[in-house]
Design brief:
205 residues, alpha/beta, Metallo-beta-lactamase, Chain A, 7-stranded mixed beta sheet, 6-stranded mixed beta sheet, 14% helix
């Protein structure tokens, strides 16, 4: 499995011939939205920063779009979406946390979760995983809660999503991993997670 970061909270995840796009933006501040072909698109929240599945069409590839809570089966892949209410900069939305198993690894994508959304009851619904993707791109999720959520999931790898260098630096300090070096892509298999406990991985834009 190969994971790359494409700005805002957008990820590209490749496994063989299968490509998943997570939270592709509709628009970006610099106008340069990511564009690539994806088989499946996951949309956590209906904002311009996360809801641009049309940009993931390429050639004959038109993605299957999952954009809310529920249980889904696509190309042999099972995906569970767990919804919760969030308030982002004064606006109310439904944010969907996605759980899935890919290449034998349990993945959790937190979307644009907020501190208020992540009650003990909601965190219990999410459960544990191997790799967790936590948001650092908005002000309604603190680094303390992001790290608390990540550690509570028993994840071997924690991948913060965001490009704000100050927030990333603060998150690394919270995690006690201030010397982490960022990489262009993460290539990982189930066996690579053996012995890892809450290791932070930073992805370059």
């Amino acid at each position: 499995m190969i994971v790359t970061y494409h700005g805002e909270s957008c990820l590209k995840i490749q496994y063989g011939d299968f490509t998943l796009a997570y939270n592709p933006p509709k628009i970006m501040k610099d106008g340069k939205v990511p564009r690539f072909g994806a088989n499946v698109v996951l949309v956590s929240t209906h904002t311009d920063a996360t809801n641009g599945p049309e940009n993931m069409e390429y050639g004959q590839t038109v993605p299957f779009v999952i954009d809310g809570p529920g249980n889904y089966e696509i190309t042999g892949l099972s995906i569970e979406g767990i919804g919760g209410e969030v308030n982002l900069s004064g606006e109310n939305y439904i944010n969907t946390v996605y759980r899935m198993n890919l290449d034998g690894m349990n993945l959790v994508f937190m979307g644009l979760a907020t501190d208020a959304m992540l009650t003990p009851e909601f965190r219990g619904k999410i459960g544990t995983c191997d790799i967790i993707f936590v948001p650092l791109g908005h002000d309604d999720m603190s680094n303390q809660m992001a790290y608390k959520m990540a550690i509570g999931s028993d994840a071997g790898l924690i991948i913060p999503i965001g490009s704000d260098s100050l927030k990333i630096k603060s998150f690394l300090k919270e995690a006690g991993q201030e010397k982490v070096t960022s990489i262009d892509k993460l290539t990982v298999k189930k066996k690579d997670l053996t012995g890892k406990e809450g290791e932070v991985v930073l992805l370059n834009l």
